[in-house]
C-alpha cells in the first residue's frame, strides 16, 4: 500500500499513519521518510511515542532502541510513560541490563519526571527476584530521582521484609 502524503504534514497525521501500518518496518520507513519529504518538519513526543510503541509491541527491539536514541539526540520533550514503556518492553524481553542502562541515561532525555520509569524498573527487578540488585539500585539512584519515590520506598521495604533476601 502506497502512502498518500499530505501537502502539509502534522505530527498528528504522521502518528496516525504510523499506527495504521500493519508492518512495523513500513511504519519505520514512513517515520524516517517524513523528515526527508518535509525538511522543516520535526518529530514531536507523540510521534516518537507512536513509533516506539509500534516497534516495541512487535518485538523490533533493535529498531526501537535506535528511535529512543534519536529521540534523545533530538532533545525531544517526552513523557515518562514512554520511557517506562521502553523499560517494561526490555523487562518483558528479559533484557534487564538494557532496562537499567536506559534508566541510568534518563537525565540525558528532555523529560522532567522519572517516577514511572523508576517504579517500572523496580517492579521488574522484584518480579524477577533480583532483590539484592533492586536494593543496591534503589539506594544508588535515589539521589537524582528525588522525593517522588516515597511510596515506592515503602512498597520496596515491605517487599523486602516479606522475602528473606540478605542485603
Automatic annotation (TrEMBL):
Positions in coiled-coil regions: none
The PPR repeat ranges on this chain? 44-78
> Hydrolase: is it a keyword of this entry?
no
Q: Which InterPro entries match?
A: PPR_rpt, TPR-like_helical_dom_sf
> Matching Pfam families, A to Z?
PPR (PF01535)
Keyword set, alphabetical order: Repeat
- Please give the Gene3D superfamilies that the UniProt record associates with this protein: Tetratricopeptide repeat domain
Q: Does the keyword section mention Lipid metabolism?
A: no
Which protein family is it in? Belongs to the PPR family. P subfamily.
Please report the name of this protein according to its UniProt entry.
Pentatricopeptide repeat-containing protein
Amino acid at each position: 500500500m502506497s502512502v498518500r502524503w499530505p501537502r502539509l504534514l502534522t505530527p498528528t497525521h504522521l502518528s496516525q499513519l504510523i499506527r495504521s501500518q500493519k508492518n512495523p518496518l513500513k511504519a519505520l520507513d514512513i517515520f524516517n521518510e517524513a523528515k526527508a519529504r518535509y525538511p522543516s518538519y520535526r518529530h514531536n513526543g507523540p510521534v516518537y511515542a507512536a513509533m516506539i510503541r509500534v516497534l516495541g509491541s512487535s518485538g523490533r527491539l533493535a529498531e526501537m532502541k535506535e528511535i529512543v536514541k534519536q529521540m534523545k539526540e533530538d532533545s525531544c520533550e517526552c513523557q515518562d510513560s514512554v520511557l517506562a514503556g521502553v523499560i517494561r518492553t526490555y523487562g518483558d524481553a528479559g533484557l534487564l541490563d538494557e532496562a537499567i542502562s536506559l534508566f541510568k541515561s534518563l537525565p540525558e532525555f528532555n523529560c522532567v519526571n522519572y517516577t514511572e520509569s523508576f517504579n517500572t524498573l523496580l517492579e521488574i527487578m522484584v518480579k524477577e527476584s533480583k532483590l539484592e540488585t533492586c536494593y543496591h539500585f534503589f539506594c544508588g539512584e535515589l539521589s537524582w530521582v528525588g522525593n517522588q519515590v516515597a511510596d515506592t520506598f515503602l512498597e520496596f521495604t515491605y517487599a523486602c521484609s516479606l522475602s528473606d533476601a540478605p542485603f
